[in-house]
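Notes from hallway chat w/ T.B., transcribed later so I don't forget. T.B. wanted the structure written out for a chain they're using in a teaching module, and asked if we could keep both sequence and structure tokens in one place. Agreed to drop them here.
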Amino acid sequence: MTTQESASTGERRSSSFVRTAIALQTLTIFLQAVSAGLLLSTSYGETLHSAGARVMYGASMLYVLAALLVWKPGGGPVRPVLHASGFLVLASVQVVLGIAHVTSVHLPLGVLMFGLSVLALTRR
């Protein structure tokens, strides 16, 4: 295998890691919408939504890590790092708003985050 073929394989693998991280993030945000519905209708919904928030935040951090690994050692573009970092900021704001029970902003921000995550997934 030549060096160029090896680099191409590495790029595909790292790109696949970023795509998987975005897919996981998108899935966790969708599950947060489901658990928000359960929050309104069941006694265990709050527990699920709270646990899901932690998982969603972890998925957002994984997206940042994946983007960093593609950018720095791999020599990839910096734009995915900026997108992932921006998303982590949104996730942080979302968690703070949820803890503070500011649903008038928390809910629309969740919808926006889901849309942005789907957009990032389709653009990869």
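Follow-up for T.B.: The two ends are 27 Å apart (CA to CA). Might be a good example for the class.
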